[in-house]
Protein 1
Amino acid sequence: MTAGQGGEPKRARAVSGAGSRTGSGGGPGAGSGGRAGARGGGEGAAPPAPPSGAALALRIAGYLLLVVLGVLVAVAGALVQDGWFPGGLLLALAGQVALCYGGVKAMGTRLGGALPAASWAAVVLLLTATRPEGDFVFAAGFASYVFLLGGMFSGVMCATLPKVTQPGRLAARLAK
């Protein structure tokens, strides 16, 4: 009985880990507990359940809101960046960075930063084209190029740099 009791704590530690130490418990049931952890039956190893209908609709609505905000920030930035030269340019770029980084943090995915960056870039590129009447939004100057390139660079940077933790995986990483 003493040997069986001594094997129990070892087996519990082997199973609660990531399942990489199969059979380190010492008792006859220790191997089966280790195999269950290796198959993904251990604590925190199961894939997250798909979101329910209401949660999925809310997530899609959030992404659509980020796309619309990307369009609005692009139009507002295009009008402000050359009007108030140094301050307007910084304000327009800060709005782009805040929207993309805020989208990443609000949605918890990198797609939350990529969607507003893509919609911003599409609208700004459409605004650079001249019309048949000869009108255009952007003047050919240093500020316009900084706005175009800086906004695209900051959108890509915000969408790719932050490290987003995956839900449900935190418990498995802390157990190691």
Protein 2
Amino acid sequence: MKQFSIFILKIAAVLILTMGLLDVLYTTVYLQSNSRNKIAYLYNSKDLNYDVVFLGSSRVNNHFVPKIFNDRGYKSYNFGITRSRLEESALMLKLMVERHYKIKNLILQVDLNINTNDHSEAIRSLFMPYLHRSQIIRDHYKNIPEYNQLMYIPFYRYMHYDARVGFREMYYSLVHKRTNVLDNDGFHALTSNPGKMVPADLSKYYPKRNVAYEEIKAICKKNHINLIAVTTPMCMSTINRDYFNHIQEIYPEIHRFENAVTDDKYFATCGHMNKAGAEAFTQIIFNAFFKPR
């Protein structure tokens, strides 16, 4: 029995050691890769200067064309990430401050993402390689239920989020296989929709006060960043467009642009514009708040 117990302890020790070594290996690879996604690019950069930064979900990623700003004398970048929520946008802004970014204007999408205080599990996973290295990330996640496992069990976070930061992604990061995520200064264009537009249904959506949005406002105020919060276009057949009226009842400072682009020819889906729509909308936003230099 004693020998069996010693054998089990040896196996456990080897397992823990292996997990620790794998943890170090994966983390080292991710710390040297900045071409796979916007969070890696953000974390592995510092001291960047931007006149305009765009933050939000796919309704930023697919809707704002930095080239229109850049061609008019403004340095801008689209940090929008598909599937992200305001919680992830808040953490990205915190990291920008931690990485000593100098940002003059933040254009933040606040529309469908304000109906929940929840997070995106898929996007949360992309922050995990840097959990042990960033106090900002640790503080942001210290109250989530699985924090202790993610923080103190070696390699657990890579196993838990294997689909996003597991072996496949680590290998591609190791060999520096690029994606197109960072092309066009972060803007990703959608193609036109040749079929009939399917109306989006917002009847189950209801805006509420949002913790992350409040946090973003506080960060911008503290760091002298001009925050421009906007709604973004939806096709005119959207069910329950009154949703946007309720947003402004809660947060009157949010600028409404859900009707800025209306023709279906500018939409890939009811909730996402195509390239032509994105260009038209970005020009509208530029004209509303900026002037060519």
